Amino acid sequence: MGRLLRTGLNAGTEAPRVIGGEGVYFHLADGRRVLDGSNTGGPLGHGHPRMAAALREAAGLPMVSEGWSWAGRDQAAEDFFEYGLNGEEHWAGAVRFCLSGSEANDIALSLAQALTGRQPIATRERAYHGLVGLSRDVTTQPHWHGGLAAPEAVGGARLPFPCAPVHVLPAPDGALYRSAAEAAANPPRPLYERLADAPAMLAQSAAVILDYTQGGFYHDGDYQDAVAAIARENGALWIADEVVTGLGRAGRPFAFQDGGSRPDIVTLGKGLGGGSISVAAVLLSKEVVKRLEGASWQNYGTLRGHPLAMAAVSAYLRILHEEDILARVKTLEAFYARRLKEIAERHPSVSRVAGQGLHWTIELHGPNWRQWLADTPDAPVASRVADLALQKGAVIGTSGEQTSLFLAPPLVISEAESATLLDILDQSLDLADREHNRMMEAAQ
C-alpha cells in the first residue's frame, strides 16, 4: 500500500522484509531464513518461550500509569538489583523505568542540568545517544542528527537547532586490528595528551555522557577512569550510557566494569526487555539519590513502567541469570576476536576492527566519516556489502554509515552459527576489496 513512511539503517538500500523469526533467524517474505547478525535490541533472539509466556501472562493486567504504585514495577526493580547489578549494589541507589534509551538519556542529562545548575553537556566524538531532546544534542555521529540528509541538488543536509551547548572529547584509541594506512593516519597518542582539553570542557558542563560502542569506538578502563576523574574534579556528573552494552552485550553486566570508577547515573535500554518490548531505565547512584532528598523530581510519563514492560524486564533478568548468558557471551567474545582479526588481515578494504562481547565494528577504508552526512544518492559501500551478505543468508548492520559494518547477534547464538555469520562476512567483504582496489588504482 505504501502508506508507511520508510525508515532504514542500511542507507541506499531496501531493508529486509521480515515476516517472522525463531531463535537467531529471521523469516523473510521471499521464503528465506537468514541469520540475525545485527540486532542490539534482541538479546534472546526471536520467540524465546519464557519471554513469550511472561508476556502472555501480563497481557491481562490493568494499564497502570507511572503515577500509580504497581507491584510488578516494584518487583522489576528488585529483580534489577538482585540479578542485574550482580555485585554493584554497594554504590547503586535506585532505578526508574522509562520508554526508550533516547528518553533515558534525555532524562539523565536534564537531571544533571538541574542538579549542577549548568547547561552545557559533554560527550565524545562519534557518539550516539538518541534522537530526543538533549540525547539528540550529544549524538555526534555526523549523519545521525535528527535533521534532513539530501544531495545539494535538493537542498543539501539540514541540521536541527540544538537544545544545549555540547563539548566533544576525543574518542578512545583502542582497536583489535588496524591496517597500516589507518595506523599511519591516526597514530596512537598518550591518554593525557588526548584529554588535555577535558578539564576546561567539564568545568563548564553539567555532565559527561559516555557510551561504549558507537561509531566503532569501545572504551577501555583507563579512558573511562580518566574522564570520570576529570568530571569529579570539575563538578560534572558522569553518565554511563549502557543502552547497548548493559546486561549482556559486553559479556559482563555493564561495560563500565572494565574500569575502577563507578558512574553517577547509568542509562539502559534496548535489551532490557529481552527484545520483546520497548523499555529503558535510569539508575542513580546512592550519592545522587541523596542529593534528591527533600526535592520533587518533576518528571513523569504515562506509559513508563507499563505492566507488560515490567513483566518483560523481570523475565529477561531471570533468564540472563538462570541460563548463564553472560558466560556464553564471554566465551564467544574470544572466538569473534580471533576470527575477525584473521578476516581483517585478508581483506585490504578493512581499515579497523574493534569490539567487545557480542558487539563488533568492521570499518572500511573510505572518505572521512567526520564530513559524511548521508547526503548522497549512492548506496555506500558498507550498505552494498550488507546487501550481498543478506543474499548469502545473514543480516549484517551498517547503522546507515558510509564505511562501517557492525555485528551484534542475539546473545544466544551458538559458536557454529557464529562461524556461519563470520564466513558470510568474509565472503561479502570481497565486494569492498574490489571497490577499494578500484579507488586505489584511480588515485595513482
Task: Give me some keywords for this one.
444 residues, alpha/beta, 13 helices, 16% strand, globular
Shape descriptor reads globular
Q: What is the gyration radius calculated from CA atoms?
A: 21 Å
Helix content: 25-40%
Count of distinct strands: 15
Cα distance, first to last residue? 49 Å
What is the chain-wise order of helices and strands? EEEHHEHEHEEHHHEHEEEHHHEEHEEH
Strand content of the residues, in percent?
Answer: 15-25%
| Contiguous helical run count | 13
Major pleated sheet: 5 strands, mixed
Overall pLDDT, averaged?
92
- Main sheet: which strands, in order across? 4-11-10-9-8
| Low-pLDDT runs | none
Based on secondary structure, the structural category is alpha/beta
Care to describe what's here?
By secondary structure, the chain is of the alpha/beta class. Helix content is 35%, strand content 16%. It is built from 13 helices and 15 strands. The strands form four sheets. The protein has a five-stranded mixed sheet with strand order 4-11-10-9-8, with helices on both faces. Helix 8 (221-233) links the parallel strand 8 and strand 9 (237-241). The protein starts with 17 loop residues before the first strand and ends with a helix. The model has no long low-confidence stretch (mean pLDDT 92).
